[in-house]
Amino acid sequence: MDLAALKIDIAEVPTEENPQLVLQKSRDFYWYSPVLKRQLDSVKADIVARPRNEDELLLVVGACFKNEVPLTVRGSGTGNYGQAMPLAGGLVLDLCNMNRVIEVKNGTVVAEPGAILADIDKVTRPTGQELRMFPSTYHTASIGGFIAGGSGGVGSVRWGGLRDVGNIVRVKMAAMDGSIPTVLDLSGRDINRVSHAYGTTGVITEVEMPLAPAVEWVDLITAFPTLEAAVHHGEALAAADGLLLKNVAVMDAAIAPYLRRHKPYLPDGEAFVVTIAASFAAGDVAALGKRAGGRVVLRTDTLEAEARSRLPPAFELSWNHTTLRALRMDPDITYLQVLYPQPGIAGKVLKMSALLGEEAPTHLEFVRFDGAVGCFGLPLVRFTTEERLDEIIALHEDNGCPIFNPHRYTLEEGGMKQTDPLQLGFKRRSDPKGLLNPGKMIAWDDPDFDYGRPYLFPSLSA
Amino acid sequence: MDLAALKIDIAEVPTEENPQLVLQKSRDFYWYSPVLKRQLDSVKADIVARPRNEDELLLVVGACFKNEVPLTVRGSGTGNYGQAMPLAGGLVLDLCNMNRVIEVKNGTVVAEPGAILADIDKVTRPTGQELRMFPSTYHTASIGGFIAGGSGGVGSVRWGGLRDVGNIVRVKMAAMDGSIPTVLDLSGRDINRVSHAYGTTGVITEVEMPLAPAVEWVDLITAFPTLEAAVHHGEALAAADGLLLKNVAVMDAAIAPYLRRHKPYLPDGEAFVVTIAASFAAGDVAALGKRAGGRVVLRTDTLEAEARSRLPPAFELSWNHTTLRALRMDPDITYLQVLYPQPGIAGKVLKMSALLGEEAPTHLEFVRFDGAVGCFGLPLVRFTTEERLDEIIALHEDNGCPIFNPHRYTLEEGGMKQTDPLQLGFKRRSDPKGLLNPGKMIAWDDPDFDYGRPYLFPSLSA
User: Fold this and answer.
1) N or C, which end of chain B has less CB nearby within 10 Å?
2) In this predicted complex, what is the ipTM?
């Protein structure tokens, strides 16, 4: 890597070399995991570049290729798996300056990758449209980072996962394949070459996302005497094709204390379901909850304005914001990502809850998955040792509940358990020198890796 | 029944007594069924009333109560089961004059029951919204008739059935319970008291329906060398949570000749899938079809304007318009309504196709059903005798495919196979004299009826 030559080549692009600021931009939300915190705390780039447009972006990518400088792309750095952290040093490509919403169409929006999700919706909402799905970091996360590192979230209960066909319309990307990088417009299945690839196969320069109707949304919380009743209500809501819902989360009673501002509404010792529903569907959600044995303890459409203004939106109680809130109050808490497969979702959830009890309070997020109801768990885990964490993971897997391990920074170990041949094959052409986010795709670094043990990128074992 | 007194009581309301016109308004599309045609051909009301507003409607309902005149409500009369036919004579309440769209909100529309579906959308579309679902008679059917007699249709592949919670927001109805009828505003589960009740429990006076985003829709037809490949493609499309689709119909090669204007695009001997997709999802639909072994033979977004203008919209090839087109060319054709249950939809479809061959060409409509992919069949049936029709029905049921018999005019025999206790209980209060659409709810007329034989209303056996 020839950093001196790189700096000359990209002189016209804004850069940052102040060590404290470079360190800050070399981090994401990896500290959700005590394991990643231990492994990645010293990771740091050499320089941060902040291109203001596609021309500048291509200049940086081309200069990195020429000077053999590793490049790690970063949106807002709100990912949880160290995916935006530069294990091999080099350059962090911070896309915060490429944040324009380019065009709102009938059904889609075109934006630069650094555009913040909430800012995109500010532009689309006057047209009666909004993004279909977003992570709980909606107010800070970028659309490019969501595509490169996310998998779904709020909205997935209607639209499925981000990688499901139709949920990304088009992605424009730059390859790391020459001093003048190749630019590709990907649609259809080809989008998977860059989606959820942590920026290992290319740099997203523009995206087109499908939109959903922007209706008025209402937050509801329904409390239940048992976790079982809450799980059944959550599953019934997720199965209701005619109810326009944006999110359905189920939480065990032990989670209530961590949702501080909502705590006054949450009855002690009761499980609860947090739902985001179209205003005209809120009455149906409430009625279904009552018939399932619950009582509605909060409805933002009937709450007085002042009380409402003190509450964060329900999506900031959901997905990884649940974990975040617990973590802030108790630094020993971490989490897992579980899939409770069909059929018999509720049975699997209750079994794991019975096996782990207070060590791992239940937190579920219902989604649509291949045309049916799916259920992910993000249980809080009271962390003791890495060995015990591995035992808890094994206990889930032994009981038919696969884990997408959030304590690993590689693509393969996080979820897929195997190389994506499409991404690997594409990387051979789009990044022949292996400069894009080194260390995140095991299949590239160590094709013969034995998945029986955790992968450690060479620079980290020094 | 005192018709003379009735006429005096409703003198201010427009009425019709010309026998030809009364006969015409005493019919619906019952002639889809050779069985119903034989049974119902002589059915005729005594008078037709056409109120212009809710006050006039209530005057007619109250006068019928007072003078004990049977009342059968009618929208546009596009139903197929004789549901709008006055078996006991009396008054037909034709709601064609109550056709106003009252208000378009963010997410819903409020309309009078006689409003035509296509006319409602003309008002909602400038707001970027449209009805979620409609029958293939979109251009002629009324919203009240759809709710009272329909079950879903185009749009159900995303939103499920009309009776699924959330697909009707509110229904205002008049009971037949006094000279001044009680008016009720129903929401939530109470809506089922009048939805799909054929007007036996009350008269719908106003509805509020949820809306979906009004995007640009594209019709696609993909041809496949085998029915099996077409069925698998249809099921895959229906399962794609992220694809914004409005309809997915699968048809065997034998149906092509009946779709006359589309015939030039349909390869001889090939099965085909007719899809209505959001314009930004059309490329994905085409790519999925190709990967499933098909070829796209028609895409309205790439067709030249003149050719496109000669084609009816794809929804008029679907649901009962498929039957209608066949029936027009061959009067011996009728149809059935089949449910192919999960799991193993494709296997059941192919088995029935193998058993019946050319006698009942396969026509499928994919929907969402309780949170999963559902599949209804509307096979064309080359009618010979009523006995053979019953054999074909039995053959389906023996192979695990329930039939919703479209050759019966009662609520129970058509689909539910049993009384809806909610509707029956409600009717006791809302129609104590049994004047609303007599003969359509067996449980009311003959609580001890043995469902082993077809029900015949007394006046029809004369």
Assistant:
1) C
2) 0.92
